[in-house]
Protein 1
Amino acid sequence: MLKDYFTTAPAICAEAARTAEIGPYPSELNAVLSPEVTARAQQAIRNWPDYAATPLRSLDGLAGDLGLGAVLYKDESARFGLGSFKALGGAYAVLHLLAGKLSEELSREVSLEDIREGRYAAQAKAVTVCTATDGNHGRSVAWGARLAGCRCRIYIHKEVSEGRKRAMEELGARVVRVEGDYDHSVHFCAEEAAANGWFVVSDTSYEGYSDMPQQVMAGYSLMAAEILDVCGEAPPTHVFVQAGVGGLAAAVCAQMWMALGARRPRFVIVEPEHAACLLASARAGGPRRVQITEETLMAGLSCGEVSLLAWEVLARGVSDYLSISDAAVAPAMRMMAEGAAGGGRIEAGECSVSGVVALIAVCENPELRARIGLDETSRVLLLGSEGATDPEIYRSLIEAA
């Protein structure tokens, strides 16, 4: 099957290994994500209208070709109609922010449900939330702002597609395009917010800013909880998880660590070679910034700075860091779209297939496969983080592959 889609096997561009901690979830990490914080977010989101757990698909064809026990794919392509797991994070954080702000202003408890049901619409209209994004997080924040009834301003960098820009505008956001890359847009957004009294709802944590990224990650943790609900007594042995700033990876790692303790899976980070800030951080032993000199096809992963909050979890919970090139992304997307991997025809966006590409590359490398511990008993989890969030780009890649 693989030879039908890849003229040569995908390859790992760079790698790094660290010693991950074993045993129960460290109590020190409760300051980053705790069972109470994640449970509160998960319960709130499960109560939203139209909530439904996204499917966990079995890629039996891929597992058979790679000699693995199972390959599981969490398909986020239909999450709340936004096409991405990001719907869980930004929107929840907006509601959390509004509830906290109005509770303080009115000296009485204002719940997330109060905000979502418009009971404080007049007060919410006076609030502006903002964020910087490659597309999916901004779409979630814009959707959350519409649910909350507040104003929304989104900053995008010059390489973000017009299709993704329009999707955020259709949700009522004012979208501002700035020069520079994603990291520049993050800092520009923070400066604009400080000057205007707006509230930043970012998915990345930096010095002095951690509350909103914590709530975003708490929302993401629901993905891991849904996965464990389905897996029951047979949880994944390995998780290949893509990373931009690291929030998704940290949320899934933390949730599975809390739930499974020493039985938690081995975590493998996957990044584009042009934006491998976590791999650089792993090599250096602390957060590092990498310069984005060329944009990756995996647009949502084009981040040069690690989230400081996410790094606290990843530094202790992740054992392997890999970077991949863009070359195999489109063929992997076509393989998924045609159902060749198993699990039916799957709409997998550019970021969604990064784990697929990395898993194939690792399995084709005997030394790396042995080091990561993949064999016929392995149950590997891949996170299908997005669908066709820009349908025009998606179609062009599938047709060209």
Note: The CA atoms of residues 293 and 314 lie 25 Å apart.
Protein 2
Amino acid sequence: MRSRVWWGTTAVVLGLLMAGCGNDGGGDGNKDTAGDTAAKSLSGGYPVTVTDCMGAKTAFSAAPRKIVTSNASSLELLLRLGAGDKVIGTGFPPGKGTLPAALDAQAQRVPVLGRTVIPKEKLLGSGADLYIDTFASMGGMGGGMGDAPTEAEYKTAGIEHIYLKSTACASTRKSPVTDLSAVENDITSLGAVTGTGAKAKELVAGMREKVDAVRDAVGDTADSKRPTYFFFDYDAGTKQPTVVCNRQVANAVITLAGARNVFADCDGDYKQVGWEDVIAKNPDWIQLGVRDRGSEAANKKAFDEAEKWLKTNAATKGLKAVEAGHFLRIGSERTTIAGVGNADTVQAIAKTLYPGKVD
């Protein structure tokens, strides 16, 4: 078993599954390399070996039969890969109707082991042989989140424990992430582990098609002409904003959409700043980063609240984006957590910022 990868922020920090050995797709051209895992994924062969952020290996001699996912994002990936029938439980379940129609019915049939983090005893006693972890350390957040099992306890329970490296390894990257290669490798690796490599290849191809279309449309825009962009993590708290830095998946999403993350000069994944720092950046556009509330009506209410806060708060109501009403209502998860939705968010942002140029 591997050593656990730990980190924390005051936001709900979301960390997920591993690709192969190598770097995590930064902007320096050093891609994650899935190595033998990628080749095995395409051939459907075993054994398959994956690594965590520290390079520790986990080997699979066959596809897992009983999988538990820690939240809706990893559950959605398994459903899209066609491995949903192997999922025996999840934490942070998706609200009814929040996933695409074809996946929603499947998702609603998955037993809910925890409305938030799955209790330790319930996870260890679930009968799973694989746990896909959306959380590394909660960073001492407390609040009834529960104790996480140790690696020894996972081993005793017969559960392999893996993460998505594109998010879990964010704080340890050596360079900014400006593309989705790490996310693509997560999908490839998960396809290899579950024996759904062909579908993983199809999902990655679909993501690349969308991102390439945006790049073709706005890629020649000079950096000085690209609008500045602030991801407002409303759910992380408004007293002191938590921003996405240049190692977070969101930085790649924003960059690929033809925008400039106003906190791209921050090395790491997340950071707490002061509102004076946001005011100094004075962004052209603000994304209202609201986490899924479980229904369209509840999500709309949350977006409305986030927008109202910015418009009425003395520190933010004078921001250029606020005065112009330049808000994007795009959920946090599809921006900051690995998934095929990252490419959709690239497309959605670009359509708003470059009207008429992106289909």
Note: Residues 1-36, 137-145 have pLDDT under 50 and may be disordered.
Protein 3
Amino acid sequence: MSKVAVIYWSGTGNTEALAGFVADGVSEAGGEADVVQVSDFDKASLASYDAFALGCPAMGSEELEYDEFQPFWDDTKGSFGEKKVALFGSYEWAEGEWMDTWKADAADAGVNVVDTLIVYDAPDAEGETQAKALGAKLV
């Protein structure tokens, strides 16, 4: 059974809701998901997971949240190896450039990104379905 860490930061609850749906998709596909706020995740536990779903909304001028999530990302992006990683988050302005930038940074770091998901504002039924499908890809 695949063990997946769903690690997220959320300011309004939208990305937190997506994290829950991603975890549901992992479980429905036969995996085990641990949903953890980025501030509570211990980098030392990276080795105990088979895959990762990382969630962060667009902040500021289309960037990752800078106080907690960006430092976590900078500290861990070189540690995922060949393990599957999915990136997800919500946005409320612009067109989602922060995800393109994040995905490019992941590629430069050698991260095995299997897919990404961005959802405008709060996830609706379609966003829920997409998030569950994203989680299933990690199993």
Note: The helical segments are 14-28, 69-76, 97-108, 125-137.
Protein 4
Amino acid sequence: MKSRARYGAVVAAVGMLLAGCGGGSGSGAVAPTAEGVKGHAEGGYPVAVDDCMGVATVFDAAPAKIVTSNASSLELLLRLGAGEKVIGTGFPPGKGALPGELDTQAQKVPVLGRSVIPKEKLLGSGADLYVDVFAATGNMGGMGDAPTEEEFKAAGIRHIHLKSTACASMSKVPAADLSAVEQDIPSLGAVTGTMGKAKELVAGMKEKTDGVAKALGATPDSARPTYFFFDFDAGTKQPVAVCNRQVANAVITLAGARNVFADCDADFKPVSWEDVVSRNPDWIQLGIRNQGSEEADTKAFDEARKWLEGNPAAKGMKAVRAGHFLRIRSEHTTIAGVDNAATVEEIARTVHPDRVKER
């Protein structure tokens, strides 16, 4: 329970960070400006990428030493084939969190911070690029102080963000598809000179989501079951809802379900169990983070289910009474990445078994 409480504090802090996403001079992101698109197909330079406010950062060559803020940005670089350039990460992936060779590579990356990388360690890392999923804020509260853009510049570090996560709370419209994630990947590919692989990854994602869309057809809302993402690791005293600006909302929507908190114009929001019970979801995803082994994951999923079944209020919900639970790790749903598309397939096969079949 202590580990879940600590993670809950981190989730809350991350939510506040993302809500404050802004742009400063020199701050970058992995979606290119119109000018930056030129040369991407050929993998050429210069490459321009912009931040949440549209301020561009220009790269004249591929970075040589990269630090990543967390497991999702590390995973993208590994999938792109730029893993040998990563010299450190924060929020490292647990052992077995990534498939096959990716996991082997990830475990070799030096860990600069088990959570947010300490400011001094980041600035003294020797990196020439920091790939960040957290919002651009001057103060990171309980998660430590973030370097200012002036400090990044003085240390010779370019600072860019994965916009699908860092800028989510600034979006004017709900996340209904994976286009923001699919823009992050080729933009990061353009920066690192791995554009060919980036296109391949995006094509694989589109194949999955297009297949689900074709199978579902024009499914009316009345035929879309309601869905609640239960973030067990964030704690059980007060649930944290994924709202309509979060990538999980897009994953749930594409899978043919309805996020019960889709009316919340934010990325994350603490709610009450009364709120959850009143929305009475048809399906509940047991959201747990990688625990380090399949056995530990199974135990955590079991604990989440038992908690719902034993809670006087929660056990009366339709999903709990029917045993409608999905065991899908949090990282594949709430963190932008290639696995979002696979999660769309998995949810769709579960809630629409008559329409979406195993490939």
Note: The longest strand covers residues 226-231.
